[in-house]
Please model this.
Amino acid sequence: MGETLETRELAHFLVVADELHFGRAATRLGIAQPALSRTIQKLERRLGVVLFDRGSRGVTLTPPGRVLAGEARHALAAVQAAARRTRRAATATPHLVLAMKAGGDFGLLPPILAAYAHEPESLPVRVVFAAERAQLLRDGRADAALLFDPADDLHGFRTETLRRDGRMAVLPASHPLAHRASLRLADLPAGYLPGPGDEPSRRPAEDAAGRRPAPATVAELLQLVALGQTIALVPRSLPAAMPLRPDLTGVPVLDAAPVTLVLAWPAHTTSPARAALARPVATVRTGGEAAGCPATA
Amino acid sequence: MGETLETRELAHFLVVADELHFGRAATRLGIAQPALSRTIQKLERRLGVVLFDRGSRGVTLTPPGRVLAGEARHALAAVQAAARRTRRAATATPHLVLAMKAGGDFGLLPPILAAYAHEPESLPVRVVFAAERAQLLRDGRADAALLFDPADDLHGFRTETLRRDGRMAVLPASHPLAHRASLRLADLPAGYLPGPGDEPSRRPAEDAAGRRPAPATVAELLQLVALGQTIALVPRSLPAAMPLRPDLTGVPVLDAAPVTLVLAWPAHTTSPARAALARPVATVRTGGEAAGCPATA
DNA sequence: TCGGCCGATACCCTCCGGGCATGGGCGAAA
DNA sequence: TTTCGCCCATGCCCGGAGGGTATCGGCCGA
Model:
């Protein structure tokens, strides 16, 4: 009764929880449907819990099933992270992987990396660009990431604050609001898209309804603004890393919640090379008011 | 090459990493030694990494092996937490488990629980006493815990500050320093034991050398003080929950690092009942100066 | 040099995971 | 109401992974 679950069981369960259809889930897993049914049944018996309601009108997650879906995702990410980090620890050419979005450093990264290179334990740093930086960090594909505090999910990470920043609206230079010195949220027309760092963690390539997803990069977002399709809310420091094209204008939004740019890393890692990466941040940080106040808020 | 590791492999690996001896590890696992050897070999082949140095003078972890040991512990804790939380989500009588050390609430818990009981989503709360509260939280045996900030490992937890507090030395009333109004760390004789919340996370029942471990509870610690075997450094609010016996005296230590008592819970849980537990904390909190500043420091 | 410790190898067996065929419940269509 | 069809469960078989016993081989200490 108390044996530990196997990762295969959790992975198979997650696919069923995702598809809510044993047949399709089995296809996705490359196995036959009966085998999958039995795996789930055994999992349910082992847990002593019914995970799915099998109505003839399809399959539904029970409340405990919903709990397991969330927990299983975390557990599997932890297992994958174990494999990835172990492999990378054995690499002949050790290095750190830093995940960020293009322009997502407000121009602060170059001096940090320069200072880091002088640290005694420093390693070469490879920068990767990705929207799902938090996920990369969780499953071991990255050693550190530049994240935004209220927008990204910082749970389980340790962080060092780089900069706390207000927001501004980016609009076409021809927009009626473009000449204003400042704005309030109420001034903005309804339906503007979120700014960088507000993206949802899961971003399907395409909606079930076929709608296009929100833009994944700041460049895409600003492109949409230039096309007059939206208004963007971005950190005021953004132009330091990515100047606005001339046909766009930035106007501070006074009452938009501020964003905090942080350097984040998995809480339990112990690499001295990674620890040294946090050190130069303190010297580079500008305008930081929450020094030493870690995240996980 | 890229398949995910199985929990059984990780568990077996951890025992070998702990024992550094295949034979003993196999016995602990209840299997024969050859099977264990093969499991580890397969794990190494799958990862493409050598995890152990097999010298004839015993077995040693390689550096990547040490990485995997840390990662595997976290991954397995996550898997076990998944099972525990799922089972408890299916319980007929839902409730929350709150882990603490006896006296570890500074007397603040009763009003919190009283206020919590009036929250709309509240559940019955079962309090369990344990030294390894953080571990209980990590593997799903508890839903929340009262932890001490610099002492406990708060990585991966969300927290709500209950109280920040200086420390005092507890000494026998007959001790030469007992009449002082205040002390500094330099005044204390070398070799005093840590106070509550300074305990290491792993506490073997007995040393390899056979020495007794540090006391696990405050009551044990104060007992040792009364016996003149040590001096204790405890939070100044401790007597609010656990009055000092008359033959003991508390003297503030001005330059000892303050302790922060926090309510902690796993970062990614989503139970509304658990979320409601954090709410009364804000109303009960006294002397808190770091409100809203979360942990993970 | 020899015996003992300890991990690796060889070989066998059992059982678990998976495949195929089929049963059975339930809703929708006729 | 009957029938068709979708979809999950069940029955049965097979291959392989995991485990057990016996044994080898390297290394150290006596």
User: Anything to note?
Assistant: Residues 17 and 61 of chain A are 7 Å apart (CA to CA).
